[in-house]
Amino acid sequence: HRGPRTAQEEILCAFFAEVLDVPSVGIDDNFFALGGHSLLATRLISRIRTTLNAELGIRDLFRNPTVVGVVEKLKDGGPARPALRAGTRPEVLPLSFAQQRLWFLDQLEGASATYNSPFAFRLHGTVDVEALRGAIGDVVARHEALRTVYPTVGGQPRQLILPVEDARVPFTVEPCAEEELAERINAEAFGLFSLSTELPLRVALFTLGEGESVLVLTLHHIASDGWSSGPLWSGIASAYRARLAGSVPLWEPLAVQYADYTLWQHNQLGEILDEQLTYWRDLLGELPQEMALPFDRPRPAAASHDGELLEFHLDAQLHAELDALARRHGVTLFMVLHAALAALLSRLGAGTDVPIGTVVAGRSDQALDELVG
After folding, report:
1. pTM: predicted TM-score of the whole model, two decimal places
2. Fewer Cβ close by (within 10 Å): the C or N end of the chain?
3. Residues with Cβ within 8 Å of residue 128, at least 6 apart in sequence
4. Rg of the chain taking only CA atoms, in angstroms
5. Range 337-363 average pLDDT
């Protein structure tokens, strides 16, 4: 273990440790060997960009996964792209690229629960319903994305951020028998959202008896992702504590909102997006529209999204071997498993002329040969 020798190395060691949630990191420790993955890598790169005003790509971190390696790579890099800041907003606020995709699917397929993100918690003890209702209102007031609807203007979707006083979250409180609970939770989780007119959030509290209840909160993916649950629940918890004490949460105003990110994204990434689209169209243009896999039943005309979960377990030795394979080729465990799935589908008849390693992991086929050999 070697500790930091310079101020820059000290900052980077602190960033590595913070993102990986470990006590400390040495300058030779491998980010991915310590549990890093692509999402954590994105967070690390964001911290480096914001604090050190330096640009580092995901690929750069894969190839230089230590503090020493990052320091050397930063010597070659240019200044970071402009930081995300709040600015003047246009009258018609566009959707982010991710929101455009979800809005398009909603228009193409019709309202669907496919992109619902439900949470259900069993609560022990008495719930102050009005304090909880107020806490959720506090969080919705704080985060514009939770009080945004997506109407169409001139054939194009827009973000319409509702004033706090108009953003009323559907909040129901109903008694429920234990034997009915699963069915009621499913009904909440699979309820549809009208993106053009309804907030992308609803809440239901099922009271089961003395001191027992279940809180169900359902978000639409257009307003949330995997990282959103952290600030969402910490915000609700702190606001609920404040409401129980007869006050409101004393939060500092957010420096930026999702709408600010949307404008920054369009300004900074528009040209890059065009290049990426051209690249992938050229690479994947000759592929068939669907994989020629053997089916055990007729393919429906429209996807139903019905499915089942199949649970299986990997023993510790196999997991360690897969992890070692990933480290040996400078990829994540997810990328190895994704490549394995692609190899399996190829063997079942979904072969293509495009190298699987190129499509799946952006690597040579050497790692895939080793994986399936």
Report:
1. 0.77
2. C
3. 240, 243, 244
4. 24
5. 66
